[in-house]
Amino acid sequence: MRSISVLGATGSIGASTLDLIRREPDKWRVVALTANGNAAGLARLAIEFRAEIAVVADENSLPDLREALAGSGIVASGGAAALVEAATRPADITVAAIVGCAGLAPTMAAIEQGRSVALANKEALVAAGEVMTAAVARSGATLLPTDSEHNAIFQCLAGNSYDHVRSITLTASGGPFLDWTMDQLHAATPAQAIKHPNWDMGAKISVDSATMFNKGLELIEAHHLFPVGLDRLKIIVHPQSVIHSMVEYRDGSTLAQLGPSDMRVPIASCLAWPQRMDTPLAPLDLAAIGELTFRAPDEERFPATRLCRLAAEAGGAAPAVLNAANEVAVAAFLAGKLPFTRIAVVVEQVLARYAPPPPVSLADVMAVDAAARAEARSVLELATK
Ligand code: NDP
After folding, report:
1. Could you tell me what percentage of the chain is helix, strand and coil, using 3-state DSSP and rounding each to the nearest 5?
2. Which of 87, 92, 199, 236 lies deepest, with the highest CB count within 10 Å?
3. Which residue lies with its CA nearest to atom 18 of ligand 1?
4. Residue 382: predicted pLDDT
5. For residue range 203-247, what is the model confidence (pLDDT) as tens digits?
6. Looking at ligand 1, which residue's alpha carbon is closest to its atom 22?
7. 8 A C-beta contact, residue 177 and residue 188
8. Per-residue pLDDT tens for 343-360?
9. Could you give all domains of the chain from N- to C-terminal order, each with its CATH number?
10. Measured from the CB, is residue 99 less than 6 Å from ligand 1?
11. CA of 263 to the centre of ligand 1 (A)
């Protein structure tokens, strides 16, 4: 029996993870489950999976969580420190699935324990960069990439040296607005942006997928996970989302990982690694899919990948600033306060206005994140005046 904690248990990745655990109840013991404010949903999961502890990050939700868990024997806890404490509890694997930089401190706490961490929370790695990879090296933790693209690359790289890699190509679905004109993009609504053609995901990553910031953040993530150099990292649009990424070797061989567009596949790969486990998914039917197509990204309509590449090249604090500005801009878009096409403009303006020195500790990264958010809010205020 293996033990598992799921940070962000009430989200889309959390649900996919727990769906796999539910199918193998004799193999798993659940330690910590966390949420932000969804106390009722978290309590339901904690009771179903007999978790040791359930934590809401938002302390205002703690009374509801306590009430829902009364008499269950499950510890109910709340607040940022409780979240970090839950992440440090011994577990064979921790799934880091909180959305945004809010997941950074608990993810780092899990990494510091030196165990396995399945990383879905890309914003944490984008913001912390070398601070996180240094913590992984120091603690001896195993970082298992859960994002479908990075999981694909991880699988295609298995047993091969970076010296033999000619290039790594991240595939991008292109999102729901792939063929939209600039005028259409300008008028895009949150409801349209979160309706992804291939994947069922949380609201923030769905908007990121529509702007292509998701692919840009993944480029930065790949830069840290697979250090082959930015010049060897490429992006290609592949609307069917069947190939999840590819590694080209110097002999001309390209290895690709294919699979259904369902996060249970890469999550299962992480949970079972280095073994394999069953998933309930129908086998990939390539004859039914018929065609796999590819095209170059259009950075005129979708400037996000260009901005992310520039931030990765600048290094230091730039990716944390970019990530924070994007989180603030996406929240404003989802709240109906910012046009879709202004998301990238806000990010570019914040990057131009705020260039702090490189962070060297978790506290530094969190300070950069907080200051960049403040900067983004002031850019937003100017934009809406
Ligand atoms: P969701 O929005 O569906 O879920 C987010 C989870 O994080 C919820 O449990 C939520 O709790 C919790 N949460 C939100 N804000 C906070 C906070 N401030 N403090 C603590 N917990 C918080 O997101 P997804 O599952 O879609 O995405 C999670 C991460 O995985 C993201 O980084 C995303 O980029 C990445 N990812 C997701 C994929 C997907 O298919 N969904 C694919 C690849 C990567 P509550 O329910 O209480 O709000």
Report:
1. 50, 15, 35
2. 87
3. 102
4. 83
5. 999 999 999 999 999 999 999 999 999 999 999 999 999 999 999
6. 36
7. yes
8. 999 999 999 999 999 999
9. 2-145 (3.40.50.720)
10. yes
11. 13
User: Which of helix, strand or coil describes residue 169?
Assistant: strand
Question: Quick one: 6 exposed, middle or buried, by C-beta within 10 A (0-12, 13-18, 19+)?
Answer: buried
**For the whole model, what pTM was predicted?**
0.98
Ligand 1 centroid–CA 34 distance in Å is 11
Residues 61-75 have pLDDT tens digits of 999 999 999 999 999
Q: Residues 119-177: pLDDT tens digits?
A: 999 999 999 999 999 999 999 999 999 999 999 999 999 989 999 999 999 999 999 99
Q: Is 121 in the pocket of ligand 1 (CB under 6 A)?
A: yes
Question: Within 13 Å and on the Cβ side, how many CA atoms surround 375?
Answer: 24
Ligand 1 close to Cβ of residue 266 (< 6 A): no
Q: Which atom of ligand 1 has the smallest separation from the CA of 121?
A: 32
pLDDT classification of 383: cutoffs 50, 70, 90: confident
What angle, rounded to 10 degrees, do the helices at 342-353 and 362-384 form?
Answer: 120
Residue nearest to atom 9 of ligand 1 (CA): 8
Contacts for 73 with CB less than 8 Å, ≥ 6 apart: none
Q: Distance from the CA of 290 to the center of ligand 1, in angstroms?
A: 33
The residue contributing the CA closest to ligand 1 atom 40 is: 201
Among 324, 125, 305, 140, CA closest to 225: 125
DSSP-assigned letter for residue 230: G
Contact by Cβ (8 Å): 267, 148: no
List, in sequence order, every residue forming a beta bridge with 257; answer none if it has no partner.
Answer: 245
For the CA of 42, the closest atom of ligand 1 is 47
Please give the structure tokens belonging to residue 178: 């792939």
Q: How high is the pLDDT of residue 223?
A: 98
Helix residue ranges per DSSP H, the chain: 12-22, 39-48, 62-69, 80-88, 104-112, 122-128, 130-139, 148-157, 182-186, 190-193, 203-211, 213-225, 264-272, 286-289, 304-314, 318-334, 342-353, 362-384
Please work out whether the CB of residue 152 comes within 6 Å of at least one atom of ligand 1: no
User: Is the CB of 202 within 6 Å of ligand 1?
Assistant: yes
Q: Is the CB of 13 under 6 A from ligand 1?
A: yes
Question: Per-residue pLDDT for 385 more than 80?
Answer: no
Nearest-atom number in ligand 1 for the CA of 14 is 25
Q: Which atom of ligand 1 is nearest to the CA of 15?
A: 25
